[in-house]
Design brief:
CATH topology of the largest domain in chain A: Aspartate Aminotransferase, domain 2
Number of helices of chain A: 14
Distance between the termini of chain A: 54 Å
Oligomer: homodimer
Number of domains of chain A: 2
Shape of chain A: globular
CATH architecture of the largest domain in chain A: 3-Layer(aba) Sandwich
Structural class of chain A: alpha/beta
Number of strands of chain A: 12
Radius of gyration of chain A: 22 Å
Strand order of the largest sheet of chain A: 2-8-7-6-5-3-4
Strand content of chain A: 5-15%
Order of helices and strands of chain A: HHHEHHEHEHEHEHEEEHHHEHEEEH
CATH superfamily of the largest domain in chain A: Type I PLP-dependent aspartate aminotransferase-like (Major domain)
CATH class of the largest domain in chain A: Alpha Beta
Helix content of chain A: 25-40%
């Protein structure tokens, strides 16, 4: 009796039960099983690039010479703060100094800090829907309500108009959050659109949180933009940045928060003190990299992603009844498939289908949509495989789509 | 006009304004200024040991061979999960498997996860006061109310009795949080006390969160205890652990959360997914270290901390009117000084005092007390300097105390 009682346990918090699993990582187990069955799985599902990290970062790791792996300062190592500001000012001339910067564990932590210092539980942040799925996780953690402003594939996920945006602002709205270039849509805001967002934030007394993780990945002759170029030192703007994608350093967990709002930076710093510091070795290596890396690395990465985008768009546009578009930035795109339920299709690809020993793992886009039923027929594709593999992966996807439709039509699929 | 408007900004959230700065790090600026004036600052204020990190960890860093620093799994790298469980089971035979473990960014993140999955905003966690100051930061972040149960230096900060504890349990109490061995008091719970805590948690349907960061640092013949030895696989217990202090790896930011509560682990895992993963390079190096490190490292570190404790207690007990005790574990102790305001004294030490070109930096203990006015005359000392330096630092402290008292008495202090 006592033993049974001992093994019961109190229930969890409501927020624990409300925090959604990552939709991007949800099907990972099925993919692993497929691999174990000997099937080659082309992974277009997650933003983990295959591009090599800069040798300068790896040199920084190998050159780590401290005898004691000590805490770094809660704000970040002085050397990394200095070198990141230098690098930002060289590219964007925004006049950043370490006093405006806080080093964080990836953009993720910077966003959590931003949510917490801007909003109390129940306050609202406006986002464009579909959105980066983990924003939904951050909102569950921080108790912030995300208010989704619908964007659609029919208009290539364009930034909504000012009237549209203002219609969604309520007395509880505290901030507008924009991922530019956007994950998952690849939309890039024009200067005019950025100026409109700044004007709305100013007039409606809101914070503008800019997630610039993909900043340099803009195509078709567009110029990368840091929002502080258009609104120098504006204290209502918070820029969140990350080394993860730009330098293929997802596992380093190094990001930052940049703001000229002194009180806000201080409050974020107090939260940062509670978690002590970001990892020391990656900070040392990142500073070494930023101090020594020439412009060629990023140029090559940029060219590679643009080429992959072109390959992906071309290959997808050849599949009947698939709707997509050429994203102007980032390294994702959404594609609407001729299926009723993209998650069922993605599961089919991992559990029932293979073509010449291979299958393709795509992310169902429903997890990126906040509105009920959004993105049900849509998938997200990441440009994380080299051009040949991307082409091959989409060819397999096309075969899978045909097999799936045939199965649904009751005919035996000859590729099974 | 527009320009002025542009430069205003919305106010911060209440929780941002409520998050306290770290009391441990508050005086750091003054210490830096003292150093810049050429004064040698003995730093007894922060738990950053001078003990060298294991060579096996540094070898793991230098041996990192990945070309792409990729995301790790959100739960943690399989290799680190395996090796940490093996190491725990070897020392404590608790039968841990990776299914019960989540790798986190230090114990800090594990505690934030535990607060969030156990409590909704407004729920309560019982703590013993004084407490680890950053728990107060975590409570501000998570909206959890910490309810302080007073402990006193007069009883050497003993664990309160069952009756005492039960008196503080309310309908909102969701968990009891115990740091064992304790930071900042050094108190070690006996088996009887641990069993009492388990019994209270079971009978009152509470979670028991055990912060075992300092687990191996127990002295005077005590045996290190993992609570799961006494309550195998009890799903209401959450153990939070860290490599920071045990292996002098504070800057690696590698901790873990261990629980047999499957639903709880899953909820914490969903939060972990939102922040993607813990740093990859430190995880690889930590796994390498746990797989290859012999028992000598920890034995030597343990002996060193015990010797430092003895030196510190002996030196302090020689200073007139200082009250302290010999802590049975951890690497801190509290000492009550014959001063009205220990923060004022600590500031004096950094700004006005030096003895033979040196001063001593101690942490005012008030920041570790939740109850109003608690610890006002008390300081925390960390055993982070070698024996000779600890002895020297406390000798300087004694001189400083004399000078401070003389100044207060209106006499010119001859050491100024």
């Amino acid at each position: 009796m006592l033993c049974v009682r001992a093994m019961t346990s109190p229930s969890l918090s409501h927020r624990a039960l409300k925090t959604p699993p990552s939709p991007i990582r949800r099907l990972a187990g099925l993919a692993q099983e497929a691999s174990q069955r000997g099937i080659k799985v082309h992974r277009l599902n997650i933003g983990q690039p295959d591009v090599e990290s800069p040798q300068e970062f790896l040199d920084g790791v190998a050159g780590y010479r401290e005898k004691v792996v000590a805490y770094e300062a809660s704000q970040g190592s002085q050397r990394l703060l200095d070198s990141w500001c230098r690098s930002l000012n060289r590219d964007y001339a925004i006049g950043a100094t370490p006093s405006q910067m806080l080093i964080t564990m990836g953009a993720s932590e910077a966003l959590i800090f931003a949510f917490m210092v801007c909003c109390d539980p129940g306050d609202e942040i406006l986002i464009f829907d579909p959105t980066y799925a983990n924003y939904i996780g951050f909102s569950a953690i921080s108790g912030v309500r995300l208010v989704p402003l619908p964007c659609s594939i029919e208009s290539n996920f364009a930034i909504p108009s000012r009237e549209e945006i203002e219609r969604y602002i309520s007395p509880y709205t505290r901030a507008i959050l924009v991922c530019n270039p956007n994950n998952p849509t690849g939309t890039v805001a024009s200067d005019g659109e950025l100026e409109m967002l700044i004007a709305v934030a100013r007039e409606r007394d809101l914070f503008l949180i800019m997630d610039e993780t993909y900043r340099e990945f803009v195509y078709d002759g567009l110029r990368p933009r840091c929002i502080f170029e258009l609104a120098p030192k504006d204290p209502r703007i918070i820029v969140v940045d990350s080394l993860s994608k730009r330098f293929s350093l997802c596992g380093a967990r190094i990001g930052c928060l940049l703001t000229w709002h002194e009180e806000l930076r201080k409050a974020a710093f107090h939260i940062a003190q509670a978690r002590l510091s970001a990892p020391s070795i990656e900070q040392a290596a990142a500073a070494h990299m930023l101090d020594t890396l020439g412009p060629l690395y990023l140029g090559a990465a940029h060219a590679e992603y643009r080429a992959r985008r072109d390959v992906a768009v071309r290959a997808l546009s050849r599949i009947p009844d698939v709707r997509t578009y050429a994203p102007q930035g980032g390294f994702y795109l959404l594609a609407k498939l001729p299926v009723g339920d993209a998650e069922d299709f993605a599961t089919f690809m991992l559990t029932e289908f293979s073509f010449q020993g291979a299958t393709t793992f795509v992310a169902p886009a429903a997890g990126f949509y906040m509105r009920q039923g959004g993105g049900k027929s849509t998938i997200r594709i990441a440009f994380v495989l080299n051009q040949a593999d991307t082409e091959q992966a989409i060819a397999v996807l096309a075969e899978g789509l045909r097999a799936y439709q045939e199965r649904r039509a009751g005919r035996p699929a000859d590729s099974l």
